[in-house]
Amino acid sequence: MTYRAPVTDILFTLEHAAGLGRAREEGVYADLDADTLAAVVDEAGAFATDVVAPLSREGDRHGARFADGAVTTPPGFADAYRRWTAAGWNGVLADEAHGGQGLPVAVWAATTELWASGSLAFGLCPMLTHGAIEAIEAHASEELKERYLPKLVSGEWTATMNLTEPQAGSDLALLRAKAERAGDGSYRISGQKIYITYGEHDFTDNIVHLVLARLPDAPAGTRGISLFLAPKVLPDGSRNDVVCAGVEHKLGIHASPTCTMVYGENGGAVGWLVGEENRGLACMFTMMNNARLGVGLEGVAIAERATQDALAYARERRQGRANGSEGAAPIIAHPDVRRMLLTMRAMTAAARGICYRAAVEIDRSRAAADPAVAKAAHERASLLIPIAKAFSTDVGCEVASLGVQVHGGMGYIEETGVAQHMRDARITPIYEGTNGIQAIDLVTRKLPLADGETVRIEIASLRDVVRRAAETNAPELGAAAPRLAEAIDALDHATAWIAAASRSPAEALAGATPYLRLFALAAGGAALVEDALAELRAGEGALGRVALARFFAENIATGASGLARSVTEGAGALDGAAAEAALGI
Amino acid sequence: MTYRAPVTDILFTLEHAAGLGRAREEGVYADLDADTLAAVVDEAGAFATDVVAPLSREGDRHGARFADGAVTTPPGFADAYRRWTAAGWNGVLADEAHGGQGLPVAVWAATTELWASGSLAFGLCPMLTHGAIEAIEAHASEELKERYLPKLVSGEWTATMNLTEPQAGSDLALLRAKAERAGDGSYRISGQKIYITYGEHDFTDNIVHLVLARLPDAPAGTRGISLFLAPKVLPDGSRNDVVCAGVEHKLGIHASPTCTMVYGENGGAVGWLVGEENRGLACMFTMMNNARLGVGLEGVAIAERATQDALAYARERRQGRANGSEGAAPIIAHPDVRRMLLTMRAMTAAARGICYRAAVEIDRSRAAADPAVAKAAHERASLLIPIAKAFSTDVGCEVASLGVQVHGGMGYIEETGVAQHMRDARITPIYEGTNGIQAIDLVTRKLPLADGETVRIEIASLRDVVRRAAETNAPELGAAAPRLAEAIDALDHATAWIAAASRSPAEALAGATPYLRLFALAAGGAALVEDALAELRAGEGALGRVALARFFAENIATGASGLARSVTEGAGALDGAAAEAALGI
């Protein structure tokens, strides 16, 4: 149960698998030398380990509590939040003009992983604030920026995103919240929003709500949605007409208040437009990449913490003999337990590699002097984001479940704390676009980017990693290169199949989820090999990264061919009268 | 949330995939015609639907409560238990000589699934009583049988199994509970046992504990363990020296009291030997097949209920357009959601087919006149049991998790009820031998049965199903036959690899878990095809079973080749200094 921030692993993967080292040579990280990066991640790791991680269990037991419109967070949360903002962690990414530190996305990604490992419920609050800061920076008027950005960047105030309504989840076209022009440039908002993370809490005096709503004369569907800023406390100090009507009783993240927010019970909540009327969804898209990457990092974070717990237990717990041991051996010596633990380690590292690579591509897209390079990097990041989000959160759930299994009966007892990881992780494949939505995004929007050139370049870069691995002839890599080459072949084949001119949308969509997993196996395996090659080059140490790359390639990436088959030959089974009979429709 | 017992599916799968029809022709079910079978399952289905299923949610919310050594079960549980025993359901399997109905294991299996679907926490109590009845029938003295069996069979009393101690879980060699000879033929037992299901409750006046303990002069290890019967209330009406010291706070099955039992705080709990001294583990083996099958059926049960909930939600919930729908379509129309639902249906049906086939083999082993047939059937059942237990419980977890995903944000809210399925299911891969232990049992004890003839016959029978499928040339089966043939080839190859004389135990154990999964994909796929062939022969209806068989073969069994590769080429990555570095040892 003692979390230790994996600072060395994070820095190593950033440098190698994520390509930060290469990007630095290109000048992408001109303002961030390696020592500064290491110092920042180390400092964040210490805070996550010492201050945030101890909140997790009590936060789960106590939960966020609701009474009379107010929410009380668990003991220690508000204090930790204040220490965290005082240390400047809220402003890592934000523009220096608004009081932020203007650090690269790669640094934000590393710190985001660390807070979420410490306590997912704690890390959610700043995650939402960050999204709002991005949207406001990109789209709000100068007046709104001046009024709200400094306090959001310092963390003196927090922010929320209000999208979902009971009838409008994945499908925002169905949303009904209303906004009317007040005549003075402001708007009056009314309606109910659900699942609002930290919609109400006791961390700060004010909460800035970003709300999607429709104007009276707006067109139907997604082109009639506008984005508004409606603070809990108005500039004149009065309470706005928005209240928290309750918090959900959830499977996990108990310390994070998931609020039902009611706007306009007394004439309408005062709000101001962000961006243009009816262009609210475009504003949301601005922050989507970072938000989805952030949730992917939550998956990595929980997987990391679950793995640490399982490793610690498996080294201590003695059951059964192994390798001719005298008496019972630590269960880590049993091949089956070892397979579970290596799976946990390798999956976590693969997901981390993909997430951090997306972060570096975002940084490249922002820093590159050559617009063509910037565009290509942006497209590469856009391609990787749905994979980073969906694969990493699936990994979070799978690894947390394996962690319970490693603990045996103890894992099922709540006091042990590892069942909580499973409960906490389970939200991440759902929110910020379900993993099904991510797969659809990958297949329908990301594969066609740059006429397919983006994915072609990505696959070529995966092949390049494998080629370099094969050239080492290092026996420690086992069959990693050939197994990974097969996975990439399978990916290539499935990609071409989806892109074929004759492909119907329904056929392509039917295989979207196995396709995303297939992509992740190839990209994750390549990330591990990239780290392994760096370890081999360094020529010292016990080659633990090489072992992970080999394990992943030989035992996990081997699933690629079956996934490719589901993509290219599995769609037929989903349709028709027989399939509908099987589903009772 | 409305559970409807899947009586038609159960009867169909028993008859075809499980081979009950064929066994009936052999005379295995001489005392049970098809109508009687159908009537019993139908009646049990009605009870599970009307009486047991409504307990589930409130049981989870309320939980079993402990105070002053007593356990209070949630509202309605004790009453439902009494109605259930009054209806005679507790005695389905037990010998008629002791008041049971002496029905076949196939019937017990069907009813076990139904109670567990209704409420896993409820179904656990009789599951434990059944195990004790089996052990007492097989090994206890006539006096103990007379004193305890009638009331255990009627359900007037319940029973428990006391194996685990804090330091002794999977490794019973480490157990320390003591038993001393009292000189009058009885024993005095002392020690602490943990994780005792229904160790204390308010259903009945007495509880019969079966306890593993060591005699003072017993040899070390598993050959020094004896089995004792120690009732809560002694024959003279006095309380025995055994108390419940507390109940665990668990991830799920909240309504099932998981007790810490303390024996002998006041001189020793009175107990009587069951079987011979130091032969306690052999007695446990007697009931192991049924107990493990029972837990496998719990996996099927939860998967079934989770699937019903997800299907109902997906037919109602409207989000996004599909197939050019006017306005939002039910999400079941979206290919990605449909893939999840078909996966849930197909995995559930495959696990059910494997479990019920094991049940029919047990019945054949008991009823066959020819000892060679009986022996072969017993070995076949023994081969299938670890697969039935481990695969079905993994399926329970995976399907329950998919059910949460289908529900989106709603799935994460406890009130919806589907997160409970996930929490409840998570214990089943752990108890009654972890799934890792099942895989080791399969590879080390079951593959060598009859010099490998048992597994050879099993694989040949899978091939026979595929051959018959291919011969139909039915277009509705799609590529089911070739895909399944490939899965069986992969299984055959992996089996030969494990059996090779040169194979070290460590190599074989390293691939045990992927091997078990591989076996289940082939056997589960064949079970679905067997049902599909029966549906095709009947020549009527909408061919839902054909669709499931096709979906499973084309989309799930396609994972077989990757699993075979993990078995035959993955072991090297688990060992050596690099792997140990990766695990921090």
Automatic annotation (TrEMBL), chains A, B:
User: What cofactor requirement does the entry state?
Assistant: FAD
The EC number(s) attached to this protein equal: 1.3.99.41
Which reaction is catalysed here?
Answer: 3-(methylsulfanyl)propanoyl-CoA + oxidized [electron-transfer flavoprotein] + H(+) = 3-(methylsulfanyl)acryloyl-CoA + reduced [electron-transfer flavoprotein]
**UniProt keyword annotation of NAD present:** no
List the molecular function annotations (GO) for this entry. flavin adenine dinucleotide binding; oxidoreductase activity, acting on the CH-CH group of donors
Q: Which InterPro entries match?
A: Acyl-CoA_dh-like_C_dom, Acyl-CoA_Oxase/DH_mid-dom, Acyl-CoA_Oxase/DH_mid-dom_sf, AcylCo_DH-like_C, AcylCo_DH/oxidase_C, AcylCoA_DH/ox_N, AcylCoA_DH/ox_N_sf, AcylCoA_DH/oxidase_NM_dom_sf
Ranges of residues in domain Acetyl-CoA dehydrogenase-like C-terminal:
471-573
Q: State the Pfam families in the record.
A: Acyl-CoA_dh_1, Acyl-CoA_dh_C, Acyl-CoA_dh_M, Acyl-CoA_dh_N
- The chain positions of domain Acyl-CoA dehydrogenase/oxidase N-terminal read 38-156
* Sorted UniProt keywords: FAD, Flavoprotein, Oxidoreductase
Which top class of enzyme applies to this chain?
Answer: oxidoreductase
Enumerate the spans annotated as Acyl-CoA oxidase/dehydrogenase middle domain: 161-262
Sequence ranges assigned to domain Acyl-CoA dehydrogenase/oxidase C-terminal in this UniProt record: 278-442
**Highest taxon in the source lineage:** Bacteria
Q: Which family does it belong to?
A: Belongs to the acyl-CoA dehydrogenase family.
Annotated function:
Involved in the assimilation of dimethylsulphoniopropionate (DMSP), an important compound in the fixation of carbon in marine phytoplankton, by mediating the conversion of 3-(methylthio)propanoyl-CoA (MMPA-CoA) to 3-(methylthio)acryloyl-CoA (MTA-CoA).
Q: Could you tell me what this protein is called?
A: 3-methylmercaptopropionyl-CoA dehydrogenase
Species for this entry: Methylopila turkensis
> What is the gene called?
mmgC
